[in-house]
Design goal:
Elements (H helix, E strand, L loop, with lengths): L8 H8 L8 H12 L13 H8 L3 H13 L3 E4 L3 E4 L7 H10 L2 H25 L2 H16 L4 H17 L4 H21 L3 H19 L3 H27 L2
Antiparallel strand pairs: 1-2
Length: 249
């Protein structure tokens, strides 16, 4: 991946500017988010280290560290221990509006998000059965095959899972629904990554996605909605389980 050159780090520093004394972590995150989603930094770029960002903003490294952690949960950056922090691509336009919510989100709100996501995914599946093109259907099939091929690689399996839902939402040509789903998935990303933990869960998830794809392929909107409802029920239970496990630690 492209690294941000050291001799250009000053450009990021200048773009950030300093923060007022005593700024909250959310303000630091907002400043970083404005820069990261402004289009001047290419997706996949490795960002300057925490100490450089902290010096540019004139805040402590802990504030930058917490802000980056929040942005990672929102799907804006990817923090890789020992490697650095990388800018993700395809950030939803709605994420700036949900930043403070995402940073303060707790278990009750997370469960509510899971419920909202389920309703939207079911509706998206119904629309996709009516609207999906042959080309988009082929992409959806490829996502299922990627999941099938990566059953022994949880990280790759989760990525294929996320791509399946993203491609399905894209296929209905409704940008509002696509943005809503993308925002919710970003907020839930940290939990989605942990939801599938063993072979039994992987197999169940694969079967559920296969059923959704097959229903959409037959252009049967009722069957597609039903298959997605089944998937959202079990996926929601897996997500809830991962959240409960975290709360009990």
């Amino acid at each position: 991946m492209p690294a941000y050159p050291n001799d250009n780090a000053a450009e990021i520093s200048a773009a950030l500017g300093s923060m007022p004394s005593g700024s909250a972590v959310s303000e630091v995150a907002t400043r970083l988010l404005t820069l990261f989603t402004g289009g001047s930094i290419a997706p996949g770029t490795r960002l300057p280290p925490e100490r450089t960002l902290a010096a540019s903003l004139e805040v402590g490294r802990s504030a930058v560290r917490e802000a980056l952690a929040a942005l990672e949960i929102l799907g804006i950056v990817d923090v890789r221990p020992g490697s650095g922090t990388y800018l993700r691509g395809n950030a939803s336009e709605m994420l700036p509006q949900t930043l403070s919510w995402g940073m303060m989100i707790g278990s009750p709100k997370t469960i509510e998000l899971v419920e909202v996501r389920g309703a939207l995914e079911i509706y998206a599946a119904r629309l996709a059965a009516d609207r999906i093109t042959d080309d988009a259907l082929e992409i959806l099939r490829d996502c299922v095959e990627e999941m099938r091929a990566s059953q022994n690689d949880l990280r790759a399996f989760v990525e294929a899972d996320l791509r399946f839902h993203h491609e399905l939402a894209k296929s209905i040509n409704n940008t509002v629904l696509l943005d809503l789903l993308q925002s919710i998935r970003s907020l839930l990303r940290v939990w989605v990554d942990r939801a599938v933990q063993d072979d039994e869960q992987v197999l169940a998830a694969l079967q559920e996605h296969t059923a959704v794809y097959e229903a959409i392929a037959t252009r049967n909107s009722d069957a597609a909605a039903s298959a997605m409802a089944t998937h959202m029920h079990t996926a929601g239970a897996r997500l809830a389980g991962s959240i409960d496990s975290k709360d009990k630690r």
